[in-house]
Amino acid sequence: MHIVENQPPSRMIDAGLSRDFYVHRDASWQEFSASLRTNKRWKAGDVLGPVRGTKSPRKYDTVQCGPSSEDNITVDSIFVYVNHSCDPNVAFDMSSKHPSEWHIRALKAIDAEEELTFFYPSTEWELDQPFECRCASPMCLGLVRGARDVGLEQIKARGYVSPWIIELFRDREERVGA
Ligand SMILES: [Zn+2]
């Protein structure tokens, strides 16, 4: 049974975002039951909206926004419902020094009614709660633990890598090389 819910919680209502996106709930899934879908088509490179959030300790639903394990945000918009896929169609681009420029960008063409997904290791060095992925993509990694357990090339192949992930790989190589 599928329940389609068009009204996100009130704190998440944003005029533009609630017109273009909706939260889809799948009652057959216990844990990751909500997903975000779009009402319209997007081209690769389109900006879907801003990433806004509140600094927060790392949790299963925060997004890493810098090199430290303390650099995380709780996303304060409907985009909090964007789930992981090993073959993602959007990137959370928080590469700018200015949080006002952080945005979600289409990595490929996206159809109306399609679920939006991003590749968690593109932002997360180490997940607070590793999980067994069920994305069913031929590129599926299975157990997802974070970037540190995926090669940098594997992340690049999915279209986007956060600058701190590149930095953390470099730090690790330097430690190993020392
Ligand atoms: Zn997967």
How would you explain this protein's 3D organization?
The chain is of the alpha+beta class. It has a single domain, classed as Beta Complex (Beta-clip-like). 15% of the residues lie in helices and 25% in strands. The strands form five sheets. The protein has a three-stranded antiparallel beta sheet with strand order 1-2-3. A three-stranded antiparallel beta sheet has the order 4-10-9, with no helix packed on it. Strand 2 and strand 3 form a beta hairpin. The radius of gyration is 16 Å and the shape is globular. The chain starts with a strand and ends with a helix. The N terminus is likely disordered. The structure holds zinc ion. The site of zinc ion has 6 residues, from loops.
Low-confidence stretches: 1-12
Structural class: alpha+beta
| Assembly status | single chain
Assign the CATH topology: Beta-clip-like
Number of domains: 1
Ions, cofactors, ligands: which are bound?
zinc ion
Give the rounded overall mean pLDDT.
Answer: 89
Number of strands: 13
Q: What do we call the CATH homologous superfamily?
A: SET domain
Query: In DSSP terms, counting alpha (H) and pi (I) runs of 4 or more, how many helices?
Result: 3
Text of the CATH class: Mainly Beta
Residue share in β-strands? 15-25%
- As a whole number of angstroms, the C-alpha radius of gyration is 16 Å
What characteristic shape results from the CA principal axes?
globular
